[in-house]
Specification:
This protein is mainly alpha-helical. It has 40 helices and 7 strands. The longest helix is centred in the first third of the chain and has 24 residues.
């Protein structure tokens, strides 16, 4: 049999081997990590989490790379993820891909991820085709449901879940994936709660492969940027019983600049090995220089002076130390001292301008560059190529390069940034094809390209591009508040890189506002409204966005004020009239609300939102026949919207048309499976049609989506009371009142259940309390008078009497 020719190593393999050979220092950290593999997981000394922390340039990435190599020597299955992963599903996909490359595919997870991507794509495609928007009320309900389900952290960015606005729309386009069959319901939950659905499968797959390998080692780099996305998820992952049992041979490594959040990680401190890194000692720096052949003392002292002991600079300057006596050479000149070709040197400086780059962007940044520049850049020690494929210069090296480029040639600085902005704008426009124009900030590819385009515009012309940044901020706060920190960070980066105090101050203040207030955009919008020179249209849009946030937070007076200011600023802003109508309706000012809806429809006659809100207003006023006519028109204008169907279903129920009502609720929930309001109301209809099992199932699902609501327990009590299960009904009403002691309707309902059990004095006390809370509660007054004067009738079945009226929110 002929001998096989050994496979020659690739360029990347040679570079990696050279990097490994050049690694010096950090012996204590290497020994700590190496020694952990010799300690059984059952031993209290074993650590399941390592946290490497330190300022930029101290060598965290290099140390983690060495730890990865050590883990491999112990037979570990290894995967690493950095800030390129913007969500939990992306992290899981990256880990699965790397495990598959090592011969251990996570097949069940891969199948579910593929299904998630397909479902998300189908939903987005159909949404784009159908058009339309959610009402802010629906958006609030959807976001509340997603937060309760864990798809959106209470603080921080969206953790892998779909935009609440997509869920809120109900989106007729979602009927391709949402429906009544079990599989469609499963896909609906996967789309709305990807973290909850994907993570248990991931944990189960880890447990399976853990039986086939000695260790599993996961690495999360640049954790200071991804912690808002992943910190809660990781803490939950390590909590017993939350997502399943993790294998004991798993070792997790986090690398970031800051300490772990003591609130979230305090109880898990015994699991974590904290590994702070500082600059190299002089001895470590000298050892690295000696290994590179840099031994002349004047040159060594110059490298030590320029580098400050930062490993990335020591390593870079060791490759290009310069000659003795060049004490005035800049660090940038030293970084590129080994390259004599002026074209390549200029191209390397130009490629520092994008925050991240790929081969196409290299051609844009350095259009006159020689062939092979992209590969040559990756030979430089300060170029980082993460697993996502988006390369970047190390920040410690990039900063002086940007400074040199900016001050050395302001004209080329602007021209290069303009070219890069145009390139990202083209990517942004391509990503917008087929997407809902009202929900673009929720689309990650579009958002990433839009922010990079904005960054380069700001760097080229800080003052003239700032209004564009303000408008972008208003849009992101209105459409996707959880992405506002990415927008604020873009201003911070542009301010630092362009050396613009104006941008730097704006960015820092906005980032602080976003960080301090979690997903609420009110503070950031307040800054824009008080400090930015906005157009009337922009100011109205910012006021409307802030008004909806205030209404969701239970601040109707502030919301009403903001909508009023928006109308004053821009009298033709139909969204301001429609929004103010919703607030006025919530305050019981129905005629004023209808007047605002008249104005909104006058400005935008075919706008389905305004028509739908009119129908809902008529319903709440008790003008049921008029509501039915208007809701028919709203549904005809936008058949993809679940909300008119829900409202119409309740109207038909009130009119005694229960079968038609059930059909409306069925269609509404098929369009929007997380429509908790419609689920609770469908339960009423099912109970009226003699289907208590279906009614209770709807209420169980309502509780899953919006836990802890008094109304859900009250509705459950109604079902039990209607079927003669009075003791259980009393228990449900009691739980409802524990959640909301001023729930007059629950007191009235419990009175009937207590009467059926022969507990008339308690029933009378409940009716007294109901009337105390609501003196206008006519039904309760009638029942109080009946029980007071007809004690002999107490044996009659109260379930056959008229119900206690409409519960709150009905």
């Amino acid at each position: 049999m002929p001998a096989t020719t050994p496979r020659r190593p690739s360029l990347q393999q040679i570079i990696e081997e050279q990097r490994r050979a050049a690694f010096v220092g950090r012996e204590a950290e290497l020994n700590l990590y190496r020694g952990n593999f010799a300690i059984p997981p059952e031993d209290p000394r074993h650590r399941f989490v390592f946290h490497v922390r330190g300022n930029a340039g101290v060598g965290k990435t290099s140390l983690v790379r060495e730890w990865r190599r050590l883990a491999g020597e112990f037979g570990a299955l290894v995967a690493s993820v950095d800030e390129g992963a913007d969500s939990v599903p992306e992290v899981l996909a990256a880990v699965a891909a790397q495990f598959a490359e090592q011969g251990h595919p996570l097949k069940a997870l891969d199948r579910l991820l593929a299904r998630y991507r397909r479902t998300l794509h189908d939903a987005a495609s159909r949404l784009a085709a159908d058009g339309g928007d959610p009402s802010p009320g629906a958006l609030a309900a959807a976001q509340a449901g997603l937060i309760a389900a864990g798809a959106i952290p209470v603080v921080g960015a969206l953790a892998g879940g779909i935009d609440p606005a997509v869920v809120a729309r109900g989106a007729g386009g979602l009927r391709a994936v949402f429906g009544g069959r079990a599989r469609q319901q499963e896909e609906a939950r996967l789309l709305a709660e990807p973290v909850r659905v994907l993570t248990p499968v991931f944990v189960a797959e880890l447990d399976r492969v853990a039986d086939t390998v000695p260790w599993i080692a996961l690495f999360l780099d640049t954790y200071e940027r991804t912690a808002p996305l992943l910190d809660r998820w990781l803490a939950d992952l390590l909590t017993a019983g939350r997502y399943g049992e993790l294998p004991a041979n798993l070792v997790l490594t986090l690398a970031g600049q800051r300490r772990l959040d003591p609130v979230r990680w305090g109880d898990r401190a015994r699991l974590v090995a904290d590994v702070p890194l500082g600059p190299f000692t002089e001895a470590e720096s000298r050892r690295l220089l000696t290994g590179r052949g840099v031994v002349e003392e004047p040159v060594v002292r110059e490298v030590l002076r320029l580098s400050g002991g930062l490993p990335v600079l020591v390593s870079t300057l060791a490759a290009n130390p310069g000659a003795a006596g060049e004490a005035n050479a800049t660090a940038v000149e030293r970084f590129l001292a080994g390259e004599s070709d002026p074209v390549r040197r200029a191209a390397a400086l130009a490629c520092a301008l994008p925050r991240r780059f790929d081969e196409d962007l290299v051609a844009v940044a350095a259009p006159d560059s020689p062939p092979g520049l992209y590969d040559w850049l990756h030979e430089l020690p300060f170029v980082v190529a993460p697993h996502s494929g988006r390369s970047r210069y190390h920040g410690v090296v990039r900063a002086p390069m940007l400074r040199l480029r900016r001050t050395g040639s302001p004209r080329r600085w602007k021209e290069t940034h303009d070219r890069l902005a145009d390139a990202f704008a083209a990517r942004r426009d391509a990503a917008a094809e087929g997407a809902d124009p009202e929900r673009l900030w929720a689309e990650e590819p579009w958002r990433r390209a839009a922010l990079e385009a904005l960054y380069h515009r700001l760097c080229a012309r800080p003052r003239t591009a700032l209004p564009e940044a303000w408008r972008a901020g208003i849009a992101v706060c209105a459409q996707q508040p959880s992405a506002a920190r990415h927008w604020a960070r873009t201003l911070v980066d542009a301010g630092e890189d362009a050396d613009s105090a104006l941008l730097r101050d704006w960015g820092r203040d906005l980032l602080a506002a976003v960080t301090d207030h979690g997903p609420r955009p009110t503070a950031a919008l307040g800054l824009l409204l008080t400090r930015a020179e906005l157009t009337d249209k922009d100011r109205a849009a910012a006021l409307v966005a802030r008004a909806w946030d205030r209404l969701r937070a239970g601040e109707p007076a502030a919301a009403l004020s903001d909508h009023g200011r928006a109308v004053a600023v821009d009298p033709r802003c139909e969204r301001a009239y429609q929004g103010r109508a919703v607030v006025l309706r919530a305050l019981g000012r129905y005629e004023d609300a209808l007047a605002d809806l008249d104005r909104a429809e006058e400005i935008a006659p075919a706008w389905a939102w305004a028509v739908r809100e009119r129908g809902e207003t008529y319903r709440r006023m008790g003008r049921l026949e008029e509501a039915l006519t208007v809701l028919d028109r709203a549904h005809a204008l936008d058949p993809s919207d679940a909300l008119p169907l829900g409202s119409r279903g309740l109207v038909r129920h009130r009119l005694g048309r229960h079968e038609e009502a059930l059909g409306d609720f069925d269609r509404a929930i098929a369009l929007w499976p997380e429509y908790a309001w419609a689920l609770a109301r469908r339960a009423r209809v099912r109970a009226a049609l003699g289907d208590p099992v279906g009614a209770l199932a709807d209420l169980d699902r309502t509780e899953e989506l919006t836990p802890g609501l008094a109304g859900t327990e009250g509705e459950r009590g109604e079902v039990y009371r209607a079927t003669g299960r009075y003791e259980e009904a009393v228990g449900c009403y009691g739980r409802a009142l524990a959640l909301d002691p001023e729930y007059a309707w629950a007191h009235g309902s419990r009175a009937l259940a207590l009467e059926a059990l022969g507990r008339v004095p308690e029933a009378l006390a409940d009716l007294d309390r109901a009337l105390e809370l609501d003196p206008d509660y006519a039904w309760a007054r009638v029942q109080r008078e009946r029980l007071g004067r007809e004690p002999s009738d107490a044996h009659r079945d109260p379930s056959r009497r008229d119900g206690p009226g409409r519960p709150p929110g009905g």
